[in-house]
Amino acid sequence: MSCEPIRRFPRHRRPFRSRLQLTAAAAALGAAVWACAESKSSEAPADVTLRVGLALPEVASGAGIGAVISALTGDRLVGFANDGRFEPHLARAWTWSEDRLSLTLELRRDLRFHDGSPVTSTDVEAFLKQSLTPAAGPGLSDVAAIEAPDPLHVILRLRRPSSFLLEDLGGLTVSRTIDGGSVGAGPYRHVATERSEDRIALEAFPEFFAGRPAIDRLEISSYPTVRSAWAAMLRDEIDMLHEVGREAVEFVEAESAVQVHSFPRPYVHTLGFNLRHPALQDPRVRQALNLAIDRDDIVRRALRGRGRVADGYVWPHHWVFDRSARSFRFDPGRAMQLLDEAGYRLRPDSEMSSRLRLNCILPSDWSPFEVIALVVQKRLFEIGVDLVLEPVPSRELGRRIPAGEYETFLYELVSPRGLGFAYRFLRSPGLMNSGYTAADTVLDRVRHARSDEDLKVAVADLQRVLYDDPPAVFISWDERARAVSRRFEVPVRPGVDVFTLLWQWKPAARPAN
Amino acid sequence: MRSPLTRRFVLFVATAAVAPLLIYGLLSIGSLWRGTRESVRAGNLNVATRAASQIDQYLANAFKVLRSLGADLRQTRLAAWQQDRILKNYVLDFPEFRELTLFGADGSVVTSRLGSPAVRPPAASAVRPEGLFVSPLSVDDDYLPTTTVAVRLDEPGGGTSWLVGALSLEELWRMVDSIRIGARGFAMLVSDDDRLVAHGDPDEKRQIAQGEGAPDPPLQELVRDARTPYREYRDRRGREVLAVAARVETLRWTLIVEQPAEEAYAVAIRLQRQLWVMIGLALLVTIAAGSLWSRSVINRIFILMRGTQAIAEGRMQERVAVPGRDEIRQLGDAFNTMADRLVELQENVRRQERQAMFGRLAAGLVHDLAHPIQNIGNSCKLIMRMWDDLEYRDTFKRTVDRELGVIRQMLDDLRHIAKPATLRKFPMDANRTVAEVVESTRPEAEAAGVTLSGQLWPTPLLIEGEPFALGRVCRNLIVNAIQATERGGLVVAETELVGDRVQVRVYDTGCGIPPERLRTIFDDFVTTKQRGLGLGLAISRRIVEQLGGSVTVSSELGKGTTFVLDFPATDARTMPTAVVAG
Hints:
The structure holds two protein chains of two kinds. Chain A has three domains: 16-73 and 186-257 and 486-507, D-Maltodextrin-Binding Protein, domain 2 (3-Layer(aba) Sandwich), CATH 3.40.190.10; 75-183, Dipeptide-binding Protein, Domain 1 (Dipeptide-binding Protein, domain 1, Alpha-Beta Complex); 265-478, Dipeptide-binding Protein, Domain 3 (Dipeptide-binding Protein, domain 3). Chain A has 16 helices and 22 strands. Chain A has helices at 16-30, 34-41, 65-73, 121-131, 138-141, 165-170, 226-234, 249-254, 283-292, 295-301, 332-341, 368-382, 394-403, 420-426, 440-447, 452-468, and strands spanning 49-55, 75-76, 78-80, 86-88, 91-96, 102-107, 143-150, 153-158, 173-178, 181-184, 188-194, 199-204, 217-223, 240-241, 258-273, 307-309, 356-363, 385-392, 408-414, 472-485, 488-489, 506-507. In chain A, a hairpin with a 4-residue loop joins strand 11 (188-194) and strand 12. The radius of gyration of chain A is 24 Å and the shape is globular. By secondary structure, chain B is an alpha+beta fold. Chain B folds into two domains: 1-280, PAS domain (Beta-Lactamase, 2-Layer Sandwich), CATH 3.30.450; 420-580, Heat Shock Protein 90, CATH 3.30.565.10. Chain B is built from 13 helices and 20 strands. Chain B has helices spanning 4-73, 80-93, 169-177, 206-209, 217-224, 261-264, 266-312, 327-385, 390-418, 430-448, 467-484, 515-518, 536-546; strands at 97-103, 109-112, 132-134, 138-139, 145-154, 160-167, 180-181, 185-190, 196-199, 230-234, 240-248, 253-260, 423-429, 451-455, 462-465, 490-498, 501-508, 550-556, 560-568, 578-580. In chain B, strands 1, 2, 3, 4, 5 and 6 form a six-stranded antiparallel beta sheet that branches. In chain B, strands 7, 8, 9, 10, 11 and 12 form a six-stranded antiparallel beta sheet that branches. Chains A and B meet through helix 7, helix 12 and strand 18 of A and helix 2, helix 3 and helix 4 of B.
């Protein structure tokens, strides 16, 4: 095994706010174990170190560095397969009662938190009770009681059946609160945060339930843009590029010392509508806007072919996805006809000779949306809709959307291979706060489905409603690429992000030059 | 070890066949390499020049796009939103621009791509006369090189606005990546301040982000001095590389096309290899054919040589069998004929020698036997008349006995020559034997009027010998000396101990022996006398040699002759008796 020297990281001109965010995320995770970590960090450097470069603009979504660190240091009770089904993690099995009002989780034996204490059902019970907040998700909000009858079992009793409960559990990283901080049970544990260098160090947790990771140490650095992270990889300052920019993928792929792994990302680029705008209250207008946008062109030009046309908000690989459901195809003629029918005709006397003028907010610090916005703007202009682009910082975007302070927005909505986030965004009042209510009934049916068959029928109805009365233009599913030095051997599973399998990585038997 | 003849044949084949082939091969390969080098350099330079021209064209197109956009934006009565829409359409259609911004005459942003622009209008001093601006290479926020281009737009009402674009490095990279020669020939773009802008080899792109210049010193020379637009050198990876360079005039950058020599000259290398193989095969064939041919010649010469050696060693029956029909075969036949003739001549010589010897032997016998027989015959006639004379009967008896002794001696000599007698050696006193012989031959000396003297060593001289045989030798030498000495002459027999040797010398004051006879004087049937078979000295030498000694002779005509017998002295008490076969 080789000992990689720790290189100096280049100093970037990053905003103070970003640094603050980074530090806060790490501090929350590491405060409780700081003393322990300090003693650990004074030990000799780990044998195998992976240097990871994160390109994290100041987005308000969960893709921040805190979420990345949390995913590495913590683990969940259940995980998601690419088809939306669930996989054992800390819970090795689960059982539903016949009336679907009780879920029993069976924990793995010999689970340990990073402080060495065992993970018991009591810990899980306490953690889940602590997580039962209004923001926890629709599944957890149906939980009436949580019990721990023995050290290995946890029982969740529901007020109503919920198809979102396991999904919500899969979104929670189990931790234990001690001394105002928390410790996780994931494959890596926090060692140190170097504020001046924007670098966080993690070390392998030897008592991880699946075995000690082969990579002893992670050094995670953040960069202000995807391009600057890529440049760092070019300079061999990092071993892994967390996200390869679309412009750079072909160059990185061609490099013989680097392996690139692409995977479908459960985020859909969305032009969301606020139905409080008079014109957008008419479903025909929203249908017209859907028909006016050439999604294939966007995937080709803006995503450089690294994405997939979206047929709706339901994850297309999900086992309940109805492939026979109708979807919007590019048809500007039909779009103009619908606008005419809705009374929005071309007005030659207007400033832009347009039918309709809409404002659109979009993140100013996230370049992929720029080209998408320009293409959308151009297509809508062709049918006489004037889309006025208003780039705003992601933080402001994150505030204005839930507050309903927009006419339209261009952003990505997460749909982590499940259905719960469709409920969260679209069920009124919803995270979009758009005034959209047409899918409320069917979303409730999805939420409280008692069987797989019920769920399948409800989702098909949801897809139909989202076509007939669309709340947004669901443009394209994202695709992301990770670049990793060939010095590491990376397990590959179709459709799975290799980063989530990081604990299974190991040094390559024959290091690539 | 090959024979000189074989070596000469090898040298002959090498000189006659190999050397011309090698010279031809070297000249051909030299010519091939010169031609290939020129051709490949010209070809690669052509590619580099065209690629540089493409990059120039790329930049020219960028200016065209800017001018075209400028023309669109300057249309009269365009609203701001219309200008904005036009600019954004250009952004979508021309991805080589990372940024496009229109600055008004007062320097304010009229319209831009999205968000705040990162470019600025150029300083007036840096603008070319035609209103174009290309910034020197700079490093952007991502530590990657970038460049900015701008066109000046003259407003109808006076004032100057600027349309500024930032060229996307990735688009330039794609262009450079598309320039390939063979499978391993890549292009790289180096700025005038020796900074790497693009590299077609995916694994070398990191040098750009590391802010490096042209990777090898010869390439840096190419950037600085493009008068000789090619270099051949060994790069950092230890490969022999051919690099050619062409100028990108618009930016004053240098486009370098680099290709491993192994690939660039693959055709020449392959041809050279084939040529060497062909030359090698030709050499092998030539050597094999020459070897076979030379073997057919040399082997036959060796046959002749072995025949000659056999004849020289006396094996006269050896003959040679030389295959073929050429001159060497004729030489072999001539050799056999010569050998046959030689055998024939040798037989003739032997026959003649036998006849001569027989003649000499017969004449000698007749001569030597005639006298005793005559004496016996005369004595027989007298005995019949003088039977009653008792004194005469004694005389008769002595005469017959003497003559019979002579005849017996003659017959003994002949028998000794045919079959030498076996001698039994034992310690004996040479002095005593010599003294006895001197005494026994004194009457004969007195009869011949010759003084015979015996000068003996004062002490006994013991040798390993046989007294009768040594006496016979001494008698023969003394009698011969008496017979060779005139009346009044002297014959001396003397003995002497010389170191550990015993010498017996017999010398006389006779007529001497001619030098030409001295060499053969010990041979059979050689004599200087009128009588005798000429066997006496031959027998004497054989006896002396049988006794372990040697005999030498020296003579001077008119003065005399000396014979010296030389024997090793011995100690009588320790020497065992030995038998010496004759």
